[in-house]
Amino acid sequence: MLALKIGGSADMDYDAIADDVAEFVKGEQRLIVIHGGSTQTNEVASALGHPPEFVTSASGYVSRRTDRRTLEIFEMVYCGQMNKGLVERFQKRGVNAVGLSGLDGRLWEGRRKATLKVVDPDGRRRVLRDDYTGRVERVNTAMLQALLDGSYLPVLTPPAVSYDGEAINVDGDRAAAVTAATMGIDTLVILTNVPGLLEHYPDESSLIERIAAAELRDFMNIARERMKKKLMGAGEALSGGVRRVIVADGRVQQPIQKALNGGGTLIE
Amino acid sequence: MLALKIGGSADMDYDAIADDVAEFVKGEQRLIVIHGGSTQTNEVASALGHPPEFVTSASGYVSRRTDRRTLEIFEMVYCGQMNKGLVERFQKRGVNAVGLSGLDGRLWEGRRKATLKVVDPDGRRRVLRDDYTGRVERVNTAMLQALLDGSYLPVLTPPAVSYDGEAINVDGDRAAAVTAATMGIDTLVILTNVPGLLEHYPDESSLIERIAAAELRDFMNIARERMKKKLMGAGEALSGGVRRVIVADGRVQQPIQKALNGGGTLIE
């Protein structure tokens, strides 16, 4: 079984991805799709007069500032525009997709961070208490299994749900990792808008083709912000029992086939 | 079993509705929720620079002009903002809701209208070929039944899916009606921002308390535009086997209890 994470960059070829998914489903390959929508959320948030803000944690990770209004816009884009756009693409190709957020059926459950400690560009530290972010800790595997057994294609998207039933923004790559691990999935393919991990970003000829799981930590400092989260997700997937993670190009024809046939960065 | 349609007006009390739904679910009453989002779609569409347009059919019915961009905004609001907003309200109250559009699992299938014949205010007739509207003709009852058997609360929203796999805008009241009829549901409650059918709109003291199914047609000319569709839905529900439809006030505390205890307009 395959878990497929589809990134949310503007230049992804969603039609090519949907074509390729349809091929796999026709070949009776079981799949779970997880997708993002970060770029589109930035656009819509700006258009609606609530432009995106990003905060940096003490450990140097950048994340989206998620107040209630941002959460609402986030849901519009991830659960509305992106999720239903993908589900429609699959339905047009005869694949019976079902789009769900982590709120639905408590599919992705986790703890909401009570406080978020951030460091401003001037070095000043602040504590945010009204942020809705967290991390997926539990997956409703029974619901996913029931969908797969019914020959549906699950198409999953953030937000997740807190133990108190609140929507929480979670990282899509890491949510894909925990889903793949919990479902006992063999391979996680992460499609993005670069060919994989690049030694000298943005030089696409500097693709790193293979990383051994044990050496993943050494590559973290090469990765830029969004790739860093993908590698972090890859590490979590592997330590959770996934056999291999492939970060590959989502802008090309047959992106999944290419990823599985030696394209992208293989982490195993 | 109860089907509950929640309208999309700005003054609906969604928290009171969610409280009441939670009471029913705790009492082991089975429910299916269907909701709209028309007013919110108008607001977001205007904010995004693609203001809503409405067209009038030759038979006098007004409907939303649904081009591809409108469809995308429609999905953002109905499937994102409204659906996940409701699902979160239910989850906060311990009700394990699952939000789905008609695209998901081909839950609501129907024919897309190949052309839409409209009459402009000046009487000129036009034919629209790029409109994405239709009507629900088939319901995926197996998926709904599986959710109910798993103790989930289905929360359903337009769009539906065409036989070709395209998203199509369908009327929420009529989708609720066909869902209730197909699922063999006894009672359909339609919550809206008036106390029911008013003989002299907007005089709320002119509530019509009961309409016999056989006389429903006589009341169609009293109903204004949106109420007309609710009565049309009511008629379709009754002729499909639903025992009673209650159109009632969604702006009050305990709106479902009140509707079932003599509030609103009972059509049976």
3D structure, described in words:
2 copies of one chain form a homodimer. By secondary structure, the first copy, chain A, is an alpha/beta fold. Chain A has one domain: Carbamate kinase. Helices cover 35% and strands 25% of the residues of chain A. Chain A is built from 8 helices and 16 strands. Chain A has helices spanning 14-26, 38-47, 68-92, 141-149, 172-182, 216-219, 225-239, 255-260, and strands at 2-6, 31-35, 54-56, 62-64, 97-101, 108-112, 116-119, 125-128, 134-139, 153-157, 160-162, 167-168, 187-192, 210-211, 244-249, 265-267. In chain A, the strands form 4 sheets. Chain A has an 8-stranded mixed beta sheet with strand order 5-10-2-1-13-15-16-14, sandwiched between helices. Chain A has a 4-stranded mixed beta sheet with strand order 9-6-11-12. In chain A, a hairpin with a 5-residue loop joins strand 7 (116-119) and strand 8. In chain A, helix 2 (38-47) packs across helix 3 (68-92) and helix 5 packs parallel to helix 7. The first copy, chain A, is globular and about 55 Å long. The two termini of chain A are 16 Å apart. The mean pLDDT of chain A is 96. Chain A binds chain B through residues 44, 47-49, 72, 75-81, 83-85, 87-88, 91-94, 96-101, 103-106, 142-143, 146, 150, 152, 159, 161, 164-167, and chain B through 44, 47-49, 72, 75-81, 83-85, 87-88, 91-94, 96-101, 103-106, 142-143, 146, 150, 152, 159, 161, 164-167.
